[in-house]
């Protein structure tokens, strides 16, 4: 078994702009084993597919404890670095979030700036950076370099004027980087031009979301991306194929 500190170091090292780490988004031990057997070096656990798998809505429809139960099953099944989408934090303190993740063997997290428990408001840029800073300090105190992927929902929520949205995202994510993030996630599907602006302006590896049925690693590598994940799209693609199989028998 690899130590948790080794896993954290490995996950951080895999983030290489121009040679992105591909983190298949999994939701249970079965999907994690599937990705591990395909040869991937690390995985991420997605809140949306986990929520779907337990019959709860996304956007913090499940509790942090319910998420941890599923993550513990995944880390028991595969000996790989695991990052976890903790949405906006489930109303927990940074200390509790880090403690819970380390206890179940996770070494990374994705933290977004939409606060679901407060009507879906977007955290102010400094407010989100301060939360990232709290997570970094908590991880440092715990002695594990938990890899923090700081996400902004400016694009998917289409907040403010489109004309300066990229600049506002860069400013917001730069604050998160200064607060202790390890990678930055301007979630959404962007043009090549926008990705190039983001990857050239941001000081840390950029996470891109990809459709596993359409995209390819080389395309994201050429844009300078450092990390690729699938969100709920791997689960959705498998659902399409499952429906095709089941339709033969219905």
UniProtKB/TrEMBL annotation:
One of its GO terms (molecular function) is lyase activity. The keyword Lyase applies. InterPro entries: ICL/PEPM, Pyrv/PenolPyrv_kinase-like_dom, Pyrv_kinase-like_dom_sf. Keywords: Lyase. This is Isocitrate lyase/phosphoenolpyruvate mutase family protein. Pfam families: PEP_mutase. It comes from the Bacteria.
